[in-house]
Amino acid sequence: YQVLDKDTIKMEILPHLSVAKRGYTTKSQLVEIVNAILYNLKTGIQWAYLPVSSLFSEVVLSYKSVFWHFRKWCKNGEWQEITMTCMMLRTNAWMDSYRTLLNRFDTTISSWMSFNYIAFMVILLKKVKKRKKFR
Question: What b-and-e string marks burial along 103-130, b requiring 16 or more CB atoms within 10 Å of the CB?
Fold first, then answer.
């Protein structure tokens, strides 16, 4: 279950996300955590039903750990920063083929906004990757 390939996540998304400098460090790779968040966005599945055993290769995290990272990055405004950076460099705006955003029903405003930013980011990176192949 890959939404984006690992190289795209490493080069385009991870440089903008905060990581622990000391203290708690994640047991799994951040690439896999971002992929799990993107999978949740794409499918609209509830966090409790996230297929973590299929999304992680070495150390399998619980859905609560994935959600914790997602909320941390939402509160810091890092999802918004990633999206705005990608959009300023490459495009004006992106919508999916149905002209809707891929957000699902969530109870907090910051989560809803982050889902919108993630949707724009995934659509943008897929479009940019397709353009590179044709050149």
Answer: beeeeeeebebbbbbbbbbbbbbeebee
Q: Which two structure tokens, joined as six digits, stand for 83?
A: 């999206």
CA gyration radius, the chain: 14
Say what the pTM is.
0.64
* Distance of alpha carbon 53 from alpha carbon 135, whole angstroms: 38
The CA distance from 134 to 129, in Å, is 9
Structure confidence by residue, pLDDT tens digits, 38-93: 888 888 889 999 998 888 888 888 899 999 999 988 888 887 887 777 666 654 44
Look-up of token digits 């959600």: 67
3-state secondary structure 6-33: HHHHHHHHHHHCCCCCCCCCCCCCHHHH
